[in-house]
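input
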Amino acid sequence: MNVNKVMLVGRLTRDPEVRTTNSGQTVTSISMATNRFWKDKNGQRQDQTEFHNVVLWGRLGEIAGQYLTKGQEAFIEGRLQTRKYTAKDGTEKRFTEIVAENMQLGSRPQRADGSAPSGSYNRPASVQPVRPVAAPAPVEEEIPTINLDEEPDEVKIEDVPF
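output
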């Protein structure tokens, strides 16, 4: 049995880059950072940051381009893929990226005072909900999120919402 599965929860290090292929397919590239924390044998807190390149195709890429912003948390599920190309100097280069198959939006970036930066989340006019004037606005369900920056030691498995 073979398994190629990646699951990441991290923050975007830059805004999504949306492109269209010659055949009209949408492809979006994002970069994410994940952190790992532990205590060394002297009891000192240590951390390590990893950076990941993620590619989202089709409608998933369109959604990422519309709603994700730099600093926002996201959950990405997908697979590893290694590609190779020939550089200008003639050497063969290889790089590994994550091809996303599923995505969940996380909490938006926040300032130190807890407020969202202005313009950090602008819903495009093309996806504004249309509601009748007389109809009451629906009550939005609050979706629990895990803020990795506020976790003191480790994420407890009972806190993971999926």
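quick obs: The first helix runs from residue 58 to 67.
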